[in-house]
Amino acid sequence: MPMLPRAVLFICLTTAFSSAQALAQSAPPAPPVTVAKPVVREVVDSDEFIGRFQAVDEVSVRSRVGGYLQEVHFKDGSMVKQGDLLFVIDQRPFITTLNESTAALEVAKSSLTLADAQFKRAESLATTGSQSASTLDDRRRDLISAQANVRGAQATVDRANLDMDFTRITAPLSGRIDRRLISVGNLVQADQTVLTTIVSLDPIDFYFDVDERRLLSYADEARKNGSALQQGGGGLDVAVTIADSRQKPFKGKLDFAENRVDNETGTIRVRARFPNPDLVLQPGLFGRIQVQGSNSYKAILVPDEAIGSDQNQRVVYTVDTAGNVTPKSVRLGPKLYGYRVIRDGMTGDETVVVNGLMRIRPGVKVTPQLIELPQQATDDEPPAQADAQGTSQ
């Protein structure tokens, strides 16, 4: 092979060097991304259930005596106190009955006075032999009968007085009253006709069902250090949110759990009680309640924005000091303190990309810009306010 002239070789080398230099100058700079260390702190998982509010006390108001409704003493839908007058049944028939029974009592008392005097007289004569023993026995029988008649007449008067009291129907409890279900002038059947209903509002109960899977999980926690759901509620702090997003979560306590699992649904019903001084919560409202679902443990937390997808896996991108990006497959948990819990796949010492995932390309280095994540990204107060919909993925 003939040797190339030195001039031609020099020209070739110069051209190659210039091309490499131009290529280096035209390469784009490493894209900037925001990176941070994950938050590592003690957390408690929470579980979310859907339930409904119910009144602690609810009563259907009925009359204990029959008659025609004469008066209504409340405004539909108003708040009433225990003992407030609600309805009045026409009292005239009961006044007549009371007067009759009172008169009968007076007659019985007069008969008792006569029988007592005759018995004492017969008893005095019998001691001197002027009265026979049989006559004395007759007078004793008359006295006993007169005493019984007085007691019976007194009971009739007491019953008439009681019926008179029952014509004035009062509120059996404090709360909000419904509309009147019957108008003045209608006949009221004793112990049958429902006149209205009253529900108590403060405090108010919230009922929800716990499924078998979570119940077994709670049972496992109970074997370790006790679980509130395994001990009839146990006073565990909980919080409930309603459909109105402007309302902050309402705080209450668990106070009851049923003693067996329902055969048909495989769930156990649990109750929480909430103070309701502003009467915002109403019976029948749906809500979402967050309940402590685990003991305290150390968790790795990252923002949701730091989590990407790789086919059917969830990944986070770690960055080293040279700007090299490495994806890591992770298993997610619930959302706490505004972050997502990483169940598996991280140690907590990594530096992860928290902003700029769209700029990451395979084999391309990045320019990391380090920030520090706050311990709490939102104003939520776990475990009660934690969003537990993010189960393991």
TrEMBL record:
Multidrug resistance protein MdtA-like C-terminal permuted SH3 domain ranges (all copies): 299-358
Q: Which UniProt keywords apply?
A: Signal
Give a GO molecular function annotation for the protein: transmembrane transporter activity
Disordered: region residues? 374-393
What processes in GO biological process is this protein linked to? Answer: response to antibiotic
Q: Which domain of life is it from?
A: Bacteria
Query: Which N-terminal residues, if any, form the signal peptide?
Result: 1-24
Gene3D superfamilies cross-referenced by the UniProt entry: 2.40.30.170, 2.40.420.20, 2.40.50.100, Helix hairpin bin
Would you tell me the protein name for this molecule? Answer: Efflux RND transporter periplasmic adaptor subunit
User: Which species is listed as the source?
Assistant: Rhizobium lusitanum
